[in-house]
Amino acid sequence: MTTIHYPESADLRSLLRFAPEDGHIWLGEHRMLLLHAGALSELRKELIASLGQQQARRILTRMGFASGMRDAELARKARGTSNPAEAFVVGPQLHMLEGCAKVTPVRLEFGGPGNTFYGEFKWEHAWEAEAHVQQFGEVDHPSCWMMIGYASGYTSAFMGRFILFREEQCAATGASHCRIVGRPVEDWPDAHELTPYFEADTLVGRLLELREEMEAMRRSIACPKRIPSLIGNSSGFHTAYELMVKAAGTSVTVLLLGETGVGKERFARALHEMSPRRDAPFIAVNCAALPDELIESELFGVERGAFTGANVSRAGKFERADGGTLFLDEVGELPLPAQAKLLRVLQEGEIERLGDERTRKVNVRLVAATNVDLQQAVRDGRFRSDLYYRLNVYPLTIPPLRERVSDIAPLTEAIIERFQSLHGKRITGITDKAMHALKNHTWPGNVRELENVLERGVILAPMNGVIEVEHLFIGAAQEHGLQTGVSAAGVLEADAPVQQGNIADAVLETGMTLEAVEQALLQRAVERAGGNLSAAARMLGMTRPQLNYRLKKHTG
Ligand SMILES: [Zn+2]
After folding, report:
1. Distance 159 CA to ligand 1 centre (A)
2. pLDDT of 473 above 60
3. DSSP 445-485
4. Which of 75, 289, 293, 523 could be joined to 90 by an S-S link, Cβ 3.0–4.6 Å?
5. Which is nearest to 47 in space by CA: 127, 131, 168?
6. CA of 41 to the centre of ligand 1 (A)
7. pLDDT for the residue 506
């Protein structure tokens, strides 16, 4: 039997950050809660009382499983490159750091060609056994359900196959400690008795599904044709959406207002899709993208010989949109002569191609959009007031993304989904910290900026991995504000400021010599590593012989 020693846990402790000013505790990129064990114990008791022991056990096991799976992500990140056993014991070490029990490995064998697993651990002071005994007295069955869920979830995610742990002995039965054993699920002869605790309950699950179906039905009744490209839950989004639905049935000219990148073209398309014109063309023109001398021929068409180079007759966008919808983006950029012609089309419902005497009837619903203040443009003489009043019949403002924070999560999910298939890459999700960063960004570029940021995230995140804050905002891991970490002695300690410039300033102000600074740094690293020179060398980014040499230099 091999004895397994835990590596120094400074790497794991450094993942735990207290940011009391922000009301956050982070473990890596996961948001954590410092929860009273007594309160969780109360919840556990309530679950047992209201749902019965079997259901309560299932819920707690699954909750532990979810938590173990999250910690397995950290194992890859913290010790992905070290030897597999050191990487694996991140789980037991985190379980201890999180205050669940003292975990001692008894036997651990895994890997090899068959990706086999056998793990045996001792749990002392298991919180759940203590809670169970406190509420129910000593019982005749193992009771550390959430903790077993954790061990199974962690190991399954780590191994990439379902590893099921069970308690061979539990302190809740009066034993001095708990002892757990984990094997691949198919190696347990009584697996069928254990696996139900890991599965979503069919009855409860079915009820939830039914509720979701009902809600989906209710939504589809409220909005007869839900447009998948438009996503939002916020009240600002709903207001704009409802206004659009009301306009869709009519032929009213709609003026879409909002900052750049809010998705005006998506709204225009959705409006078209919901309108009776949906089977006719939707034509989009960006007025700012066309040179002034081309804009009239683009919009209204041109007759052969109208000007040099006009060798063939060509229909303009209005004619091509006949029966459908014409979307004029950045309408505020139209030159004044084109504005006069546009006004005429809106008044008469007919167009004249350049160089043509004939007028042609067109039936087009116009949707215009602008991110400039058209009223100001009218005052400045850049925009015709009569055209402004024609366009401003049904103004619809799409709020900026920073005013619809509750839309960020559903948008993020949909956008990640889209870029996954575009880039042929699988992403399992986004961390709490990355989502927190998305919700706190001000988004001057709105949804378009969110799309750009998430596309970068999908590209930078590891295959089958999660998107972390670093993948979205370069340099964002450099925290602002002072955070608190846990020292080797278990005490919360505020960090020195992280920016290198600040460290240098702080050192210079002490008046220490370079020699003295180096000596202090080496000593502190050795202390933090508990005297383990290899670990201290790793912390300093050097080899052990290099560290030895430098230590000798100071003592010799
Ligand atoms: Zn136990």
Report:
1. 23
2. yes
3. THHHHHHHHHHHHHHHSPTT-EE-HHHHSTTTTS-SS--EE
4. 75
5. 131
6. 14
7. 64
Please say whether the beta carbons of 147 and 64 come within 8 A. yes
pTM: 0.69
If pLDDT is split at 50, 70 and 90, which confidence band does 410 have? very high
| 167 Cα to the center of ligand 1, angstroms | 7
3-class state of residue 230 by DSSP: coil
Going from the Cα of 86 to the center of ligand 1, the distance in angstroms, rounded, reads 25
Q: Residue 232 pLDDT > 50, yes or no? A: yes
pLDDT at 202 over 70: no
pLDDT at 225: 43
Distance 125 CA to ligand 1 centre (A): 9
Q: 273-279: which pairs have CB atoms within 8 A and are 24 or more residues apart?
A: 273/225, 273/227, 274/224, 274/225, 274/227, 274/244, 274/245, 274/248, 274/249, 275/248, 275/249, 275/325, 275/365, 276/249, 277/323, 277/324, 277/325, 277/365
Helix, strand or coil, per DSSP, at residue 190: coil
pLDDT reported for residue 79: 86
| Å from CA of 177 to ligand 1 middle | 7
Put residue 317 in one of left, alpha, beta given phi > 0 → left and psi -120 to 50 → alpha: alpha
